[in-house]
Each structure stands twice: as C-alpha cells, then as structure tokens.
Amino acid sequence: MKKSVHPAAVSLLAVAKEAGVSRATASLVLRDSPLVAEPTRERVRAAMARLGYIYNRGAANLRQNRTGTIGLVLSNIANPFFSSLTAGVDEANDASGAICFIANSAESPEKQSRQIRRLREHNVDGLIICPAIGSDHTLIDELRLLALPYVQVLREIPGSEGDVVSVDYGLGIEQAVAYLVAMNRRNIVFVGAMETHSAAQARVEGFRRAIRHFGLAEMPLVEAMGGNGYNESALDALFDSGPRPDAAICYNDLIALTLFHHLGRRALKIGTDFAVVGMDDLPQAKAPTLP
Amino acid sequence: MKKSVHPAAVSLLAVAKEAGVSRATASLVLRDSPLVAEPTRERVRAAMARLGYIYNRGAANLRQNRTGTIGLVLSNIANPFFSSLTAGVDEANDASGAICFIANSAESPEKQSRQIRRLREHNVDGLIICPAIGSDHTLIDELRLLALPYVQVLREIPGSEGDVVSVDYGLGIEQAVAYLVAMNRRNIVFVGAMETHSAAQARVEGFRRAIRHFGLAEMPLVEAMGGNGYNESALDALFDSGPRPDAAICYNDLIALTLFHHLGRRALKIGTDFAVVGMDDLPQAKAPTLP
DNA sequence: AAAGCGATTTAGATCGATCTAAAAACGACG
DNA sequence: CGTCGTTTTTAGATCGATCTAAATCGCTTT
Questions:
Q1: Rounded to a whole number, what is the distance in Å from the CA of B284 to chain A's nearest CA?
Q2: Is B157 helix (H, G, I), strand (E, B) or coil?
Q3: Residues ≥6 apart with Cβ < 8 Å to B248
Q4: How many helices (H) and strands (E) does chain B have?
Q5: How far is the CA of B211 from the C1' of C27 (A)?
Q6: Which structural domains are found in chain A, ordered by start?
Q7: Residues B122, B115: contact at Cβ < 8 Å?
Q8: N or C of chain A: less Cβ packing under 10 Å?
Q9: Tens digits of residue pLDDT in B240-266
Q10: Is the dihedral of CA A284, A288, A289, A291 positive or negative?
Q11: A62: which nucleotide lies closest, measuring CA to C1'?
C-alpha cells in the first residue's frame, strides 16, 4: 500500500496502459499524428478523458528543447501604453498556443539583466524587449551570449542589428507640427523632452527638423522631470518672456494630461487659446477634450 | 565528428566532468548545499564559469514537481488599474525568484478557461485570477479539478471559499458620499453602474446604503455602457428633469475622465458647479483637476 | 507458403536536473 | 591496525514526455 498525498498525477504511461497501447502510441495521439489507426486513436482519447489526463508540457519541453514561451521584458509596466502592447501580444499568443512570461525592468539595467537570466533559465524561446533607459551594447552582448533570439520594441540599442518593431516617432512629431502650422500656430513648444533612449531622441530630432523646415520660432525644449512630469518652471518662464507659445507638442499623452492642469491654472482655453498635441493615443486622453 | 548546430548546451554533467566530480555533487553545489567540502565547491563553481553553464530550470522542475511560476489571469489587461497590480506582483516575484505567466481573459469565460488549462499544462504553482465577467462556480470547479491553488483579486465568485485579495469598494463609496454630503451636495448620482461582478455590485450596494443613511434624493443609477463609457442620454435625462444632480460618484476613474467631457459640454465648472468623485486613484486622473 | 510492402505499433534511449541510499574518504581512538 | 563515526561523494533511479530504429500486423503477390 503506497501513501499518496496527491492522487498521483496521470501520466501518459497510465493512459497508455488504460488504453492497452504503448507510451509511444499515446504520444502520437497527443500530437495528432496521422500514423495512428482511427480506432486506436479513439481508444486512447477515451482513456485520456476517463482518467482526466493533463498534458505535461514541462516534460515535453525538456525533450523537445523548446517551450512555447516568450519573455516580455518591459521598461515600465505601469505605463498604460504597454498595457495595449501586452494585450496585443497575448492575443497573438492565444492564437498560436504560446504564452508569455512578463518581467518589468523598471528602467533599471541591472534588474533587466537579472530578469533576462531568469527567463533564460526557464528556457524561453525568445524575448520581446523594450530596453531600459541606460541599456547599452552590453545588453545585446548578453543576449547573444545566452543565445536568446530577441525583438526590440519601441526602443532600440544603437548598432544592435536585430529586428525592431517600433513607431516612427520622428515622423509623427513632424506631422503634428505640420498640422499645428496649418492651424496657424507659430510658437510651438516641445514639452517633456529627454535624450535617454532612442524613442525619445527620435521625437526631439523630428521636432527640430520640423521647426527648421517651417522656419518657426526656436523655443527652448521643456525637459521631462521624473515619471510623467515635466519642468513646470521652465514652461512658466517661456510664457512670461519672449514670444508667447500658442501650442505644445507633448512627449506623450500622460504629459499632455498633466499639461491641462497647467493651462487650467493660467485660464487658457484648450483648443482656442492654446493647442495641445499628445502622442500614444491612450483612450483616456480623449476625455478632457472639448467637443 | 559530430554535427552540431548549437554548441551543445553545457549540462550539469559536462560541468561535473570538467570539475572532476559526479553529477550529484555538482547539483549540490548548485543548490548551495552544506554537504560539499569548500575546495570541491570552488572547483565546481570555477568549472561552471569556465564552461558558461546555464541552469536548466525546466529539467529541475520536472523532477521537483514545482516550477516557481505563477499564472496571472486578468480580466482586462488594457485597464491601467491592472498595470499597477502587475507591477506589484512582478516586484514580489523579483524578490522571491518566482516569475509570472500573463494571460488576458478579456472578460470572456471561454478564453479564461482556455488560458487556465494552458497555464496548468505549464505546471504553474498557482494562479492569481481576476475572474472574467460572467464567470460562475464552474470556474471554481475547474480550478479544483485541475488541483490549481488560486487567489482571487478584486472580484470574487460567490461561495468560492478560497482566498481573496480585494478592495472594500462598498465602504469606499460610502466614504465618498459622506464627503460629498459634508460639502453640501445633496443630489448625488452614480455613474457607470453595473451588476455584472462582485466588485461592481459592492459599489452599487454601498451607494444605496449611503443614500438611505443620509436621507438623500434617490436618483436613478446611470448604467455603464461598453468598456469605459456610460449611458449618456440617461444622464442627460437626469439633468433635464426633476432635482438637478450636483455631484457624481463614478464607477472608476476612467468613467470620471469621460464624465469631464460631458460636463464641459454643459459648461459646468467642475468642483464648484458640480463635484466629481472617481475610484482607483489612477495617476492620470489627477491631470484635469483644478488647483 | 514464402516473400514483399505499406501501415501501425513499440521498446528503449534520451532530455537535464534531483533524490535516495549506499559507498568512500578521513580522523580519532583503543 | 582495525573499528567507529563523521564528513563527503557518488551510482543509479526517477520525473513525463519525445524520438529513433526496429518489430509486428495485414494483405497482396508469386
């Protein structure tokens, strides 16, 4: 008589016995191989149902040397922009049968490296990564050393050669400037500038290009501060001296939302006194607009 | 001469050979067992470094029958509220060495069930789940059948007995009403009502309790519509007939943001003409408030 | 009846770790 | 020097699937 805490998980061997076939045949049925005869297939299927068999992917993975798992390494899970990204990845996975590990680097290259190693130990088939601010080529070296296939999203380590899925931020900003110019705005200020990663650089560069192209007033950039904020006193200074800004292009929608706050205090009516353009198209950003 | 696509991954056996010990000893070193003599431990460590050994958790998991992985099943990844939740879980995991699979049920019980089975096949140690709208006791039955330990978050299947981590939504709403009453608001309307899941019911019940308790005007609830919206014409009807509402409590912050839109159209000044209370404390919700 | 051939089925090795139970090494001691 | 008690090391089984190479079955063909 054997003691058993758990009801001794049903393995493929148990199924095979129950169906009166070998482990190998049962395995073939699992994988819908055309090699098995129809009656046999049904017998095995019935046995699986009877015993409540649960496929053990872990065991299969060990043998097959792939896992059907992907690591999703994000620089800041809390940013709602990434929520949509994650939802999209999940949808694709649901169709293909893969599944994601999620990991937050929280903009720390050290944590990022720790997470990557952990994912590697779990034998993920590959990585989708938005590199943390401050990541450099050592990230790429590490990925190569670990033999991890990867795709970068949104940001890009310079000279990394691998695949990148991103947004043409520069072009987007240029189009925004063009639109504002068409609305007769001339004194456009950029709010929330950074140079910390490729996606931020691309925006600033696009802005500078557009300003020059349209021959607009060159106003100082208002730098980003902390998570979703910007240097308010710098913006105040712009309002109180020199040519008054009449429009803003914001680094992203969160910055834009914060800017509303500021404009409210100055009693500027958004859309008429002052135009605001954000970036990301968050659903929430629609709320404060006027009809 | 053997052909090898990959450099034939270094296994523990290779490390053991390199260090001149047995597989068992090398394994003990991996797990920092006190059984190994210091010089041996160092020899093995050196061998690991020299060969670039990578721990294969998959193999270990098979033997140990646990994986150090958790399934995080969310009802709607796109809701920014869950971003914070995910970030918190990730932080705890980073400390404990665990890691999360992420899965989105997208408020579909069928997709939810599919995801749960997938997670089970990957041998997750347990589940953190926010049940999709429409989930009932069959969800609990399925989890039990699969022998999956679970914690429910934010929502709760009635009669589920398991652990739940949630928010006292009813109390929160009651406190909001009390606050509004203290600000001399009397005609408070609830915007975005639903009865589809426990967290929604709790809010509505809390609201009703508070209204009765303070003897306030009983105004019809404004129902939720679709993702983050509410029935606008119902709200319009309230404004145009009977006692005029002077405050709103919103189902959540996203509804509140949407409500600003509406109030702007009616040229109501928020905070003076009309008070708005949201729920969730999203950072973005701070943006449109006035100082 | 033996041979041949395609269709099925299977025994046994294998993936890379952990676990158990036992062996080996080492000192101390009588 | 043999015995005993630690301390350290190890051989071999094991987890549950997949893969390879070979065996077996059913029929037809000669």
A1: 7
A2: coil
A3: B188, B189, B190, B191, B256, B259, B274, B275, B276, B277
A4: 11, 10
A5: 83
A6: 12-55 (1.10.260.40), 65-165 (3.40.50.2300), 169-286 (3.40.50.2300)
A7: no
A8: N
A9: 888 899 999 999 887 887 787 678 778
A10: positive
A11: C15
Nearest to A102 by CA among B106, B77, B52: B77
**Amino acid of residue B154:** L
Candidates A52, A62, A290; nearest CB to B59: A62
Q: Which two tokens stand for residue B163?
A: 């652990």
> Strand D: which positions are within 7 A of a protein CB?
7-21
Candidates B113, B103, B116, B99; CA nearest to B77 is B103
pLDDT the model gives residue A283? 67
- The per-residue pLDDT for range B35-63, each reduced to its tens digit, is 999 999 999 999 999 999 999 999 999 99
- Cα separation, A130 vs A128, in Å, equals 7
Determine the Cα–Cα distance for residues B212 and B189; give it in Å rounded to an integer.
13
Name the residue with the least CA to C1' distance from nucleotide D9. Answer: B25
Q: What does the angle CA A120 – CA A122 – CA A125 come to, to the nearest 5 degrees?
A: 65
Strand C reaches within 7 A of the A35 CB:
yes
**Residue at token pair 């399925």:** B142
Q: How far is B282 from chain A (nearest CA, A)?
A: 10
Q: Which residue from A minimizes the CA distance to B68?
A: A122
Alpha-carbon gap, residue A155 to A109, rounded angstroms: 14
- Number of other residues whose CB lies within 10 A of the CB of residue B195: 13
Which of the residue ranges A47-51, A212-216, B227-231 would you say has the lowest mean pLDDT?
B227-231
B149, two tokens: 């330990």
What does the pLDDT read at residue A3?
34
Which nucleotide across the nucleic acid strands is nearest to B33, CA versus C1'? Answer: D8
